[in-house]
User: Fold these one by one.
Assistant:
Number 1:
Amino acid sequence: MDIHRRIAFCGIASVLVACPVLAHHSTGLFDQSKLVSRMGTVRQFEWINPHTWLHVDITDENGKVATWSFEGGATLGLSRLGWSADLVPRGAKITVGFRAMKDGSRGGQLMSVTLPDGRRLCSNLGCG
């Protein structure tokens, strides 16, 4: 195989390897046009990779409680911003800032959390 074919092969292989990584980090599920916030009670904070998850019980205008799930960033990125596994304990009353799901389901892309003591932590994407 001549040098030009090797270079072309390497270029094509690099693109094919990178495509799944780019697709994995798509924000296509979330409405990027607006930031929404809701108050609720922490049900669970999953400090896991590749994405953390925050599950919050939120009461709607009719008094019905439902669990909403918010996808956060990776633990390494969030820890650099002051987050930790025990930062958002079960039962804590918080306000969640997020980009809502396009399909209207209960959840979204986690952008910020305001803790009971008033501290506001932003995600690795900023606060919105």
Note: The chain has a mean pLDDT of 86.
Number 2:
Amino acid sequence: MKVVTITRKPFRGAAFQSCLDHGCGAFNIDATRVGEGGPDGGRFPANAIFQHHPQCQRLGSKRTSGYTINRWSDGAKPFGGGAGHQYDSSTASEGKTEVRGCHEDCSLEDLGSQSGTTKFTYTPPRKKASPFNSATTWETEGRSLKDGVATAPLNYGDEGTAAIYFKQFQGETVNELPDDLINYLHTLINPPEGRVLVALDLSSVDWSSHEDSSLHGLVTLGDPGEAMEEVWRVLKPGAHVVSIGTDEEPTNHTAACALQDQGFEIRDSILLVQEPGRIHYVKKCSPNERHAGVPVNADGKRNFHNTVKPKGIMLRLMGDLPEGAHIVDPFMGSGSTGIACVEAGYSFTGMDLDMSHVELSETRITFWEAKEFRSWGAQVESDSPEQAVKKPRGKVSFLKLRDI
């Protein structure tokens, strides 16, 4: 397993202006999407890349059935008022799933054993298409436009393990960096008609052949070291440097620190998973877990937080802590860490600058303790002026939500 660090040379103004002035500064998302269907027809590239075992075999592909999407044509809402209203139906085309015979020591086999096999659905956007997305454009990119709303991309509705979310490559050895992987990283930072240098060994580069501010990016291995000044010189403002972790230093922390010290901005990182047993897969938070115990607010929403974490991730992170440990979360958000503490029996202190998050967390944690794990008898206190302090039911576990 290796970390791929992505940095960017600073520029003035907004990113779009850098793209106009220098031709770089943004990622080439459409060219690196996961799945089939052409530009904008695949999934947004994830921050993890998986590598097959050298002995894995591609057996072919299989078709998955299409599906139907119904939309109310008179503005009715799907829930609470949609019954009996007129609606239009659209049917998505069949999907296609690659079939592989994976070795028992394949990282993707490990991922699939954790996730299981499911059929992945697609929730279409509810907003009207913007003026920039005309009907002709959508149809060209594998979608159709019905009543101003874009239907699903052609490759959604596919089925398989969680591996379908991630870019996959295969090399001749376990730790080899496949050429397709290098090309993928090159494409990610390469703008149209751009010039990106791929040089895993920077000591072999003839820097005199590159003018100042002439390159749109660099893909290399590890710390640029003595070549750092030359790297800085030849890159345009907004140009990206992709540094791949080495076998000796898979975390790539030295390279990340060196690039940042030079003046590059750390923009992103990608986890390259080459062996099994290196990751723990947890599905995203289900609607039942997300909204449990949360009443509908004045805006018609329940759990309004944008990035609700599943409690399974938090339970995994605190799995090695000793009995009776006290967990502190300074960025509590929706309270998922506190819910995990209730389940695991740890005490918890949560903090958040947003009072609405404090109140949301209090509601979720109190409900979870009372309805799901009432045997803990947790005490919940809050400094929220809008919420009365709950009378303790016991003192086995102590949950404290504090606004700072």
Note: The chain has two domains: 1-56+102-121+156-281, 287-403.
